[in-house]
Amino acid sequence: MIEVVLNDRLGKKVRVKCNEDDTIGDLKKLVAAQTGTRAEKIRIQKWYNIYKDHITLKDYEIHDGMGLELFYN
User: Where in this chain does the record put each Ubiquitin-like domain (predicted)?
Assistant: First the structure.
């Protein structure tokens, strides 16, 4: 179990617990449940790398306590 911190730069930080073998799509569903937005409207990225839904957190080397950027489309 790892904890990922997502910041939307609008004053909201979301902490989500998930597994390393979860996909980005699974992470979006967990974030959507906490924020109240639809998972299709969420974009997760780090700097200029937009993360794709079908790739796992382990493949992107996302570790415990890592901060990601959260955007709403």
Answer: 2-73
